[in-house]
Amino acid sequence: MNIDWSSLGFHYTETDYIVRSTFHGHRDEKGQLMGQWSEPEATRDKYLHLHVSATALQYGQEAFEGLKAFRGVDGQARIFRMQANAERMQRSAEGLYMAPVPTDLFCKAIRLALVKNIDYLPPYETGATLYFRPLLIGSTPRLGVGPGVDFEFVVIPSPIGPYYPGKFHCTTFIINNHIDRAAPLGTGQFKVGGNYAASFRATEAAHLQGYDCMFTDAKTHSFIDECSASNFIGIRGNQYITPRSSSILPSITNDSLMTIAREMGYEVIRREIPVSELSEFEEAGCCGTACVISPIGKVIDPDNDTVYTFGNGEPGPKLTELYQALQDIQYGRARDHHGWCEIV
Ligand SMILES: Cc1ncc(COP(=O)(O)O)c(C=O)c1O
């Protein structure tokens, strides 16, 4: 194996093993799903033997997660907040009428995926990490519309490159009020494939123009909702402001940053954010596992012929400090007093 860590992007690089567990079930007379997950197993086989009528393929019964392991400054492997990802996947499973993967089993599968692929954990200071993509799919063959009772859970590891191979830099977003990613009472709060498929028309249109896509709320198209596949953050004075919305994914990165921000003395506010309030933020950014924080330099609102700019096009000092504080915990450079990292 010979990987040039610094030239890896955010794309799939095959590792030796994936980890897999299977659930076979049935519903009892009260509609309760009964059944058991098999012990997670590492396998070199990257293909699933899936029936063409599996509910994942026919009806989109599918959920996924994304989390990372970091090689710390001390050389140790740290997995970041995997229990939080396990719990979020349980909520997604409930949202799509699937069997939840218990936290113990989820964490066991992630640890196994790391240990079996330890050579793929990038060295410290390359900026690269080992990303895990847990995936839960319905495998029951069905043609009649309805949920299945059998599921596959897999963990797909892949080393991924640094999000900022050059330097920490700003991005530009364009607002799309014409395509909704998720409905207010729909599946936006779950990490399920359908939300992403529904967003591609808007995100790809933005990419063709050289931008990322900012979604507004589907009901009124006046509040900031999701920033492509990340949560929005606005900074005004000592306020850290982030959207409260039933159609955005509760980001684990955002949750971590909110905790750090409170500790730094920020007032953390979660509420609806009108698009027009963008003019009041000194700094803006979006956050997620992939980038931690991606500072936003500009937001274009084509429907209102408005361009919002933040700072001088360079990442602002407050988001830079928050970014560094979280990375310091992830790389073991700062004390992890929240117990977010598990050393494996
Ligand atoms: C739609 C969406 N929002 C937000 C996030 C950020 O979530 P997290 O910080 O847990 O990666 C992601 C990425 O997982 C996402 O896909």
Quickly list its features.
single chain; 344 residues; alpha+beta; D-amino Acid Aminotransferase, Chain A, domain 1; 2 domains; 9-stranded antiparallel beta sheet; 6-stranded mixed barrel; 6 helices; 22% helix; 31% strand; binds pyridoxal-5'-phosphate
Give an account of the 3D structure.
- The protein has 344 residues and is α+β, with helices and mostly antiparallel strands.
- It has 2 domains: 5-160, 2-Layer Sandwich (D-amino Acid Aminotransferase, Chain A, domain 1); 171-330, D-amino Acid Aminotransferase, Chain A, domain 2, CATH 3.20.10.10.
- The chain has 6 helices and 18 strands.
- The two termini are 22 Å apart.
- The mean pLDDT is 96.
- The protein binds pyridoxal-5'-phosphate (PLP).
What's a quick, concise take on this entry?
With 344 residues, the protein is of the alpha+beta class. Helices cover 22% and strands 31% of the residues.
